[in-house]
Design brief:
Blueprint: H1 19-23, H2 33-36, E1 45-49, E2 57-64, E3 67-74, E4 87-93, E5 96-103, E6 107-115, E7 121-126, H3 131-140, E8 146-147, E9 154-155, E10 157-164, E11 167-177, E12 183-190, E13 193-200, E14 206-211, E15 218-225, E16 228-238, E17 241-246
Antiparallel strand pairs: 1-2, 2-3, 4-5, 5-6, 6-7, 8-16, 9-14, 10-11, 11-12, 12-13, 14-15, 15-16, 16-17
Length: about 250
């Protein structure tokens, strides 16, 4: 049994860029870039859609000065979210827009709609947008803050008989309140293995489990605050093994 606290601050967000991508650009301190960032007034329009039901495609339409550019990208999107929670648009210039999209496993993918040197519209994937852009999208616009709805109702416990590898057993996850209200324990078990971890709970936040309707061998431990859910850890059974993945970077 291994207990591992997950560090939590007032600016929790699910949509963390991969740290490896960010660090290459953050030679100087950019921690307040999002606070100082002022979005530009859009001179055009960007439309985002997700036409494929298996959540693997994103389509971006860029319209500016009577011109249009459309491009599709393959992307494993975050599951069990309402479409409005999957992306945010940030205009840094009248003819330049960054599109942040939530993908699976605690990731955020950014695309950039802009105009090249010859005046042609273009849409490209970018590894790391300017710090002000991603901080504004994630900290100010709430990219990664999932909206509470009937589709993602929080539970205190979860139990489901599942098969993983050659093992058929009950997959059990429970949120265990403690005498102190500022933290909880999360207990998980499958096939004779069990793990427990501790999680601080800031004042005003409610802990719970978010169950995936599409994947009974997986659930997420989240914190709810003001109608928004912040995923903290993914608890899953894969290949017959119980796994707990930290979603806070």
């Amino acid at each position: 049994m291994k207990a591992w606290p997950l560090l939590l601050s007032a600016t929790l967000f699910f949509a963390c860029h991969e740290q490896q991508e960010r660090s290459s650009n953050e030679i100087e301190d950019t921690s307040s870039a999002g606070e100082a960032f002022q979005p530009a007034k859009a001179a055009g329009k960007v439309t985002v859609s997700f036409p494929v039901t298996d959540t693997t495609e994103i389509k971006i339409l860029f319209e500016l000065d009577g011109k249009t550019k459309e491009k599709s990208f393959e992307l494993p999107l975050a599951k069990d979210l309402e479409e409005k929670d999957l992306y945010r648009l940030v205009w840094d210039k009248p003819n330049s827009c960054y599109i942040g999209v939530l993908k699976q496993k605690n990731g955020t993918r950014y695309y950039h709609a802009s105009v090249d040197d010859k005046g042609y519209l273009q849409i490209n994937h970018v590894g790391t947008p300017p710090a002000g852009v991603w901080q504004f999208a994630e900290n100010k616009m709430g990219l990664g803050k999932v909206t509470v709805s009937a589709k993602n109702k929080l539970e205190d416990s979860y139990k489901k008989n599942v098969q993983s590898g050659r093992i058929i057993a009950d997959f059990i996850v429970r949120v265990i309140p403690l005498e102190r209200k500022d933290s909880v324990h999360v207990y998980a078990e499958f096939g004779g293995a069990n793990r427990t971890f501790s999680q601080p709970v800031p004042e005003g936040f409610k802990p719970g489990l978010l169950v995936s309707a599409d994947n009974p061998a997986q659930c997420s431990f989240v914190l709810e605050h003001d109608g928004k859910l912040t995923p903290i850890a993914e608890i899953a059974v894969e290949g017959g093994h119980l796994q707990i993945n930290n979603l806070i970077r």
